[in-house]
From TrEMBL:
GO terms for molecular function: transmembrane transporter activity. The keyword Endoplasmic reticulum does not apply. The chain crosses the membrane at residues 75-96, 108-131, 143-162, 174-197, 204-222, 234-253, 368-401, 407-428, 449-468, 480-505, 517-537, 549-570. Keywords: Membrane, Transmembrane, Transmembrane helix. Residues 296-306 have a biased composition (Polar residues). Residues 263-291 have a biased composition (Basic and acidic residues). It is found in: Membrane. GO terms for cellular component: plasma membrane. InterPro entries: MFS, MFS_trans_sf. Residues 263-311 are annotated as: Disordered. It comes from the Eukaryota. This is Major facilitator superfamily domain-containing protein. Its main location: membrane.
């Protein structure tokens, strides 16, 4: 038993590409160094004093994104991140304008106004069903270009005719959700396409900050714009800035998906059998060694092909090592700039589109993935729920705030998001390294679950405190800054929960991580959509007492966080069972 985690009774070594029991974990700050002859046949980053094994191993194809210069890869990430800010901004863009819409649009109630946000989430979640499998088969470029075009068109649609009818406004919001879906669901996957493991950490943090930070910063600006220029101008600005992003996405963001050679699944052994040799490598590195086994006789010592400014990264012995009589492969020519502008450049997977579309659904019945959906999705849903009710409490008695002040109220949420990122970033790898040390150098993915502790403390405190102090504020007992501070704590817990759930799924169920992330995206969007229906009815049923509602929500969140305890204890056995009884194979979706 490692730090309270029960060992499996069936498998001596739980498979590495499904779970993550290993000597190390994928920590960009702790890469695998090629310090002995065993790794000489692998391509390495030789820019530092000690060569670092490149994971995944790049090919010799100049069109492999891993072979592109670092400045080009960083430019792609920057363009996609900036565009993501405007895409995700459309979600909370009406948060400060609820009362304004009710007072200016014909036959629009508070419930109908909140549903304008709900249907955006519905469009985003529903389109992920199709966009994610499409990206797996045909790549991501066509979806990023399509999404940017839709951002422009739908924003103009809403700005120009949203006030003509509620139905027209509603449909424009649904398609805005469709436009935002590629950026919400695929930008982080593009980072995985573009970088080696030891390069991903800071880039992944940057893209997540663009997606989450932009969403919480938006209402701060929107209130001022709506008050001074009219709510339509918030959409005009999104259309304008998205229009600036479109040529950048089209010209500088080529296809990042690349079809690599499939790697075999790591073999599992029964108890009392010989376990695979532990070479101190993480999961992807073990797979690369399987693909390119160390040569037993004379090998070639030619350097690999690489751009001139990146030769220090790829300089290594040829991999796979050429041997006498071994077949040679022809390196494809480098694609021209015009060729890189094509929206499609070949099929990336031979899997069936409809199988890929349906794969996320069975995972909702898997305990680990259901936990991840709940640990992420509930707090995201509660955040949307708070946003729906904010206007009622702060624009009415006793504050009588306008749209500008209501928008500024989201400053606490934005600061909370930054705090959440700081805590998650500081604790995630540090706690995993510490627990790995305590466990004799053996890493278990369940070590990631300790992040739920700060999530539970901050998230539950935020929910309980927000409801209690919001009621007190109405009677002059608390300053308005107090409930807004608790709102910030709730958002900090939400961010930490999102990181905790994602890290655990990545480390524990790597071979179905894309399907898992798709399931989480669908769950949180559909759950948040459902909450927009119930926000106002629940408030009325509670006699406009926020404490009753948020005490219930806080208790639900507390129970979900406590479910992490059995997952921590039995998680390794669950991983073993999942390997031996593949849910996707049982559903004939492999």
């Amino acid at each position: 038993m490692g730090l309270g985690i029960l060992e499996d009774r069936v498998l001596e070594h739980v498979p590495a590409n499904l779970s993550g029991t290993t000597q190390y974990f994928d920590d960009p700050e702790r890469p695998q160094y090629a310090t002995d002859g065993a790794h000489e046949h692998l391509k390495c980053d030789r820019s530092g004093p000690v060569p670092i094994v490149l994971v995944p191993q790049p090919t010799d194809d100049p069109n492999d994104p891993l072979n592109w210069p670092l400045w080009r890869r960083d430019l792609i990430t920057l363009v996609l991140s900036i565009t993501s800010v405007f895409a995700t901004a459309l979600g909370p863009i009406l948060a400060a304008d609820t009362v304004l819409l009710v007072s200016t649009l014909k036959d629009v109630t508070f419930v109908k106004a909140s549903l304008l946000t709900g249907y955006f989430l519905l469009g985003c979640g529903a389109s992920a069903f199709l966009f994610v499998p499409s990206s797996r088969i045909w790549g991501k470029r066509h979806l990023f270009v399509l999404g940017t075009i839709l951002l422009i068109v739908t924003s103009i649609w809403t700005a120009a005719s949203g006030n003509k009818s509620y139905t027209n406004f509603l449909w424009s919001r649904i398609f805005q959700g469709v436009a935002a879906a590629p950026f919400e669901s695929l930008v982080n996957a593009a980072v995985g396409d573009l970088y080696f493991v030891h390069e991903r950490g800071k880039r992944m943090a940057f893209t997540n900050l663009a997606v989450f930070g932009g969403a919480f910063f938006t209402p701060i600006l929107v209130g001022k714009i709506s008050n001074d220029m009219g709510w339509q101008w918030t959409f005009w600005f999104v259309a304008i800035f998205s229009g600036v992003c479109l040529p950048a996405v089209y010209l500088f963001c080529p296809e990042t998906a690349y079809r690599r050679d499939p790697t075999p699944r790591f073999s599992a052994t029964k108890k009392d059998d010989d376990a695979p040799q532990d070479r101190g490598l993480d999961q992807e590195q073990e797979q690369e060694l399987k693909r390119y086994p160390a040569p037993s006789h004379q090998t070639s010592t030619d350097s690999t092909t690489a751009p001139k400014d990146e030769e220090h990264i790829h300089t290594a012995t040829e991999a796979p090592a050429s041997t006498t009589g071994a077949p040679t492969t022809t390196t494809p020519p480098k694609a021209t700039f015009l060729q890189s502008l094509a929206l499609f450049n070949g099929r990336k997977s031979s899997d069936s589109f409809w199988k890929l579309t349906l794969r996320p659904l069975p995972l909702l019945l898997h305990p680990a993935f259901l936990w991840a959906c709940l640990i992420q999705g509930l707090l995201i849903g509660w955040t949307v729920f708070i946003g729906v009710l904010m206007a009622f409490f702060f624009i009415s008695v006793p504050l009588w705030w306008d749209e500008v002040q209501t928008g500024y109220a989201y400053t606490g949420a934005f600061v909370g998001a930054l705090i959440g990122f700081a805590i998650a970033g500081g604790l995630s790898d540090w706690s995993a390294r510490l627990m790995t040390k305590w466990n004799g150098g053996v890493y278990e993915p369940e070590f990631r679950l300790v992040l739920v502790i700060p999530q539970m403390v901050l998230g539950c405190a935020g929910l309980y405190g927000f409801g209690i102090t919001l009621d007190g504020m109405l009677y002059g007992k608390y300053h308005y800054a107090v409930p807004l501070t608790f709102f910030g704590l709730e958002v900090a817990g939400m961010v930490i929960g999102a990181v905790a759930g994602s890290l655990y799924i990545v480390d524990a169920y790597r071979d179905i991580v894309i399907e898992g992330f798709t399931a989480m995206i669908i769950f949180k969007n559909f759950f948040s959509f459902a909450l927009t229906f119930k926000a106002w009815p629940w408030l009325i049923q509670s006699s406009v007492k926020a404490a009753k509602i948020f005490n219930a929500l806080g208790s639900v969140q507390l129970v979900v966080c406590l479910l992490t305890i059995p997952l921590y204890i039995y998680g390794k056995r669950l991983r073993s069972f999942s390997y031996r009884h593949d849910i996707l194979e049982l559903c004939r979706l492999r």
